[in-house]
Inverse folding.
């Protein structure tokens, strides 16, 4: 190669023949290296040369007397000579270890090695330092988190106290309301009958400017704790989780109270079904003194009657009565729901699949959480609803849900479990599940869930829903909370009607399902409504409640990583129709600020939207 | 669907068993899934369950020999799910006992820290479970045979 004249201008023997010169670094790299060596990198070529004990010939660069030009590299090896090819065999790869003591030159690499080592040591130290900093940061964060949890726990305690107070107060109102029912009945009977009564009733206690000591106390307690929950935005998720414990009754209150001012005579029919589901669902949603409320809402069944009024909802009967049992032509509209049944037990899976296919759903099964996640990952919008066992091998249902939520935030996921203790159920909701189907499940239980969460796919409601179709999709699908709260906030308008009907239908069915004790039912709902209501609690000032709390809630909710989409979807949808009713709320709020801050906060927030 | 339960003494004994063992409302739900009066869904389902139970019993015995409470609890839970779904209430109850004591808890959810007590209760429950299963299987067989 060195003798090849065509390379002469690039690389050749030096004049003495005891070294070779690379004249043009770049050309050498591009044209010669690839042909003769495995690599085409000049630096590694030089490294290799060094390993074979070639050394670069140093020229006195200061004097500028490099014989081959500034860019030339001259290499020399004692045995490498143009005239001594027989010596080539003596050119061997250095064996570094044995040479070290003999060659003085090796002392230099050794010190270099030390330098390198100390450099890498320094680097490692840096790394360790960085890690320590990170660790410290994490420890700090953790501390903050723990503090937050503690303060949230305090708040939860305070809130359940508040809930107690509110419920007591509401019970009083409720009593009064019932006492006055008959008189109201006659005065307002011109407005299409029963549907209107509850709302009219509602006006009564609210209009009566009574001091509400319980409510005031409740507000004081809340004001005392609320700043803590806002302290750290990063903890939204945690706080969201913790809010769940406290807020339901508050929202119950607001929903119930809302009925009262919100019943404008022009829209009695619409309005009532809207409030109705909330009234029925939420009040039962707490651990505290719920029972009286529950019985109340049983007694108030007339509330839901508007649903069976053919003028409003033709689908209501089909939802509230259990026709499913007898004949099943087809429950669904143009598209059959596709259900994923995640269940490790073969028998249960077969029965579940059979029940589902029997009501005209197409069913796929997964034997554990991992399979389910795989299926969803593979095609995230393949299924319309998931029934998810909790205790399964490989991956449990709650973890699977959390994972599925990352790719499919909206699909309703129903926990199937025999653990229907409230703590368990709260956990399920926290991780993004939408509802619970108690085990052993029944066909009717499954149908109820399907109708509730896939109401937008039902054959019947669609002709009525019309404009509300979209709303149904978003409000109906995500779970029990959103549709109800949507219904509660929703104003007069087709969307509101449809949502209310859906929610109402679901509600009625709850009454009929024997497996679910009312208490359990209620608790299922509590977490999901939380995102909408908890912000109100946070806002301490009355003004901020009026303006800021609602949007604040919207900000907060996405923080609850599991369920952001609901808030995002439901809130805007609801906001628009609500506008029509703004004057009511505002007017009342002006009259009774202390109540309004507590009770209308969420609704106000929606208006602002 | 009407079945005569008292064709002879043995049958009526079996059917009494059936009534004790099976929650009719739940079981009928399964039967309703059958088409054309054939038990082409329910019958294989139930007999699969018996196979599954047999298999689970084997595992339970092994776990019991190892004093492996965790596994016992899991197995109890597992069999409880399917038996409950089929309406086999006696089986379900025994499974519940196994699941609970496997967790170191009484059936009422109170803590039972004494492992020996737990194992004793589980042993007892497994024994009951097995005899119950024999009775149930017999009753179910009669039930399906009668239906044919």
């Amino acid at each position: 190669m060195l003798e090849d004249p065509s390379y002469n201008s690039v690389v050749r023997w030096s004049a003495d023949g005891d070294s070779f010169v690379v004249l043009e670094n770049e050309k050498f790299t591009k044209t010669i290296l690839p042909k003769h060596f495995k690599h085409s990198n000049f630096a590694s070529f030089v490294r290799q040369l060094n390993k074979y004990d070639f050394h670069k010939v140093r020229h006195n660069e200061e004097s500028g007397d490099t014989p081959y030009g500034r860019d030339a590299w001259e290499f020399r090896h004692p045995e490498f000579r143009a005239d001594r090819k027989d010596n080539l065999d003596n050119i061997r790869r250095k064996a570094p270890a044995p040479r070290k003591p003999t060659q003085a030159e090796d002392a230099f690499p050794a010190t270099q090695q030390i330098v390198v080592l100390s450099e890498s040591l320094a680097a490692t130290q840096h790394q360790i330092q960085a890690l320590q900093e990170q660790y410290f940061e994490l420890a700090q964060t953790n501390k903050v988190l723990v503090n937050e949890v503690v303060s949230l726990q305090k708040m939860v305690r305070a809130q359940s106290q508040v809930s107690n107070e509110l419920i007591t107060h509401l019970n009083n109102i409720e009593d009064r309301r019932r006492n006055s029912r008959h008189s109201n009945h006659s005065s307002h009977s011109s407005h299409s009958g029963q549907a209107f009564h509850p709302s009219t009733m509602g006006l009564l206690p609210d209009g009566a400017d009574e001091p509400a000591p319980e409510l005031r106390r409740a507000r004081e307690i809340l004001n005392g704790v609320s700043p803590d929950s806002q302290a750290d935005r990063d903890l939204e998720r945690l706080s969201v989780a913790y809010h769940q414990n406290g807020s339901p009754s508050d929202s119950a209150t607001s929903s119930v109270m809302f009925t009262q001012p919100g019943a404008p005579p022009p829209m009695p029919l619409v309005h009532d079904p809207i409030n109705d589901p909330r009234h029925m669902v939420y009040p039962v949603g707490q651990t505290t003194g719920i029972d009286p409320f529950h019985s109340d809402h049983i007694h108030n069944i007339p509330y839901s009657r508007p649903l069976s009024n053919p003028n409003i909802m033709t689908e209501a009967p089909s939802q509230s009565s259990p026709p499913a049992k007898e004949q099943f032509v087809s429950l669904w509209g143009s598209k059959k729901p596709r259900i994923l049944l995640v269940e490790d037990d073969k028998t249960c899976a077969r029965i579940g699949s059979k029940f589902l296919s029997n009501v005209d759903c197409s069913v796929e099964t997964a034997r554990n959480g991992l399979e389910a996640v795989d299926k969803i990952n593979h095609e995230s919008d393949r299924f319309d609803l998931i029934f998810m066992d909790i205790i399964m091998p490989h991956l449990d249902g709650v973890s699977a849900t959390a994972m599925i939520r990352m790719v499919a935030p909206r699909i309703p996921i129903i926990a199937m479990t025999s653990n229907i203790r409230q703590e368990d159920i709260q956990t399920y909701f926290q991780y993004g599940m939408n509802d619970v189907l108690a085990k052993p499940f029944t066909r009717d239980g499954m149908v109820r869930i399907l109708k509730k969460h896939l109401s937008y796919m039902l054959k019947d409601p669609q002709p009525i829903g019309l404009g509300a179709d979209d709303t149904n999709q978003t409000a109906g699908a995500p779970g029990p909370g959103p549709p109800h709260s949507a219904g509660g906030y929703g104003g007069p308008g087709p969307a509101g009607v449809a949502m209310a009907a859906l929610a109402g239908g679901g509600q009625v069915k709850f009454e009929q399902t024997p497996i679910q004790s009312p208490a359990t039912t209620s608790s299922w709902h509590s977490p999901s409504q939380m995102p909408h209501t908890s912000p109100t609690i946070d806002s301490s000032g009355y003004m901020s409640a009026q303006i800021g709390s609602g949007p604040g809630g919207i900000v907060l909710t996405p923080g609850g990583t599991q369920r952001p989409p609901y808030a995002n979807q439901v809130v805007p949808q609801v906001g628009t129709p609500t506008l029509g009713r703004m004057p009511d709320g505002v007017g009342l709020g002006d009259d009774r600020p202390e109540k309004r801050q507590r009770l209308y906060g969420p609704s106000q927030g929606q208006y602002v939207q | 669907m009407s079945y005569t339960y008292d064709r002879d003494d043995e049958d009526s004994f079996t059917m009494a068993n059936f009534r004790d063992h099976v929650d009719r409302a739940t079981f009928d739900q399964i039967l309703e899934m059958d088409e054309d009066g054939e038990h082409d869904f329910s019958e294989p389902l139930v007999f699969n369950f018996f196979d599954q139970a047999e298999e689970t019993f084997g595992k339970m015995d092994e776990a019991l020999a190892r004093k492996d409470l965790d596994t016992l609890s899991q197995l109890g839970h597992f069999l409880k799910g399917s038996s409950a779904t089929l309406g086999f209430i006696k089986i379900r109850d025994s499974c519940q006992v196994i699941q609970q004591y496997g967790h170191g808890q009484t059936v009422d959810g109170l803590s039972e820290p004494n492992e020996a007590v737990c194992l004793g209760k589980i042993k007892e429950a497994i024994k009951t479970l097995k005899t119950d299963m024999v009775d149930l299987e017999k009753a179910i067989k009669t039930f399906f045979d009668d239906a044919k």
The domain at 9-32+40-147 of chain B is CATH 1.20.120.160 (Four Helix Bundle (Hemerythrin (Met), subunit A)).
